[in-house]
Amino acid sequence: MRIFISGATGWIGSAVTDELLAHDYEVVGLARSEAGAAALEAKGARAHLGDLDDPQSLVSGAKDADGVIHLAMNHGLRDPAAAGRLEHAAVSALLEELAGTDRTFLLASGLAGLAQGRAATEEDPSPFRGPDALRGGSENLALDSADQGLRPVALRFAATTHGMRDHGFTATLAQVAREKGYVGFVGDGANRWPAVHVSDAARLVRLALEQAPAGFRAHAVAEEGVPMRDIAAALGERFGLPTRSITPEATADHFGWIGRFVGMDAPASATLTRSVLGWSPTGPSLLEDIRSGAYDEA
């Protein structure tokens, strides 16, 4: 089976590419550069040159594929609205290509902002709709197409998808701690973040490709919620740094681009995902990864 993956050279995308290749899938990966193309071909995948800025390059990559996994995302830290519109246009183009073909479309999404005061579940719909919404409202755009002759599935990744070479949420916390000389957390640090090891996340993507029903929201969550103060304590222990509370008013100045998220309480459950897909995470926990040195060079 041939699968087209956008974001195939990214951190999660690379793990997904490896997982599919190990299970005898033919992978065609989107690459934005010759270096990215060479990296894909070295591991046994085919490379397709293109970019999110050019939706037709995504469409041409998807044309001969049996399924599409859309993992690429311009997070647009300086202009989130423009990034959302770009994502909306890319997903719209892919959905138009796949409509009426009964092919599978897996779409990367997130977990933040889905529930208040409790763990988000797979039954919680995304509140984000339209091109100007977070991620361009792409999750709803995709799932609303379930009656158009394709099988859309949302892949909701924990922000703290962790492991060696992670350059996202936890890596940024580690970098800020080194720069400031202490590890910060907001308020009392009781707010929680879900977590999953990247190898478990990649396996979940494969299982969703093989088994998830149309319209399913798969939660890549191994730990429902790790308190921020525990994350800070593990980073402090590993780096020999003290921990310190940051006031909500000072978060943007202290944490930079993750300041808008770091104080959120965003636990999430994966009970239904485990049941439907038969997924059982086996990788290390977030705190185990930190303590074993996964973020020493972040």
TrEMBL record:
InterPro entries: Epimerase_deHydtase (IPR001509), NAD(P)-bd_dom_sf (IPR036291), NAD(P)-dependent_oxidoreduct (IPR051783). SUPFAM superfamilies: NAD(P)-binding Rossmann-fold domains (SSF51735). Residues 3-213 form the NAD-dependent epimerase/dehydratase domain. It comes from the Bacteria. GO terms for molecular function: aldehyde dehydrogenase (NAD+) activity. Residues 118-139 are annotated as: Disordered. Gene3D superfamilies: NAD(P)-binding Rossmann-like Domain (3.40.50.720). CDD domains: SDR_a7. One of its GO terms (cellular component) is cytoplasm. This is Nucleoside-diphosphate-sugar epimerase. It comes from Nocardioides terrae.
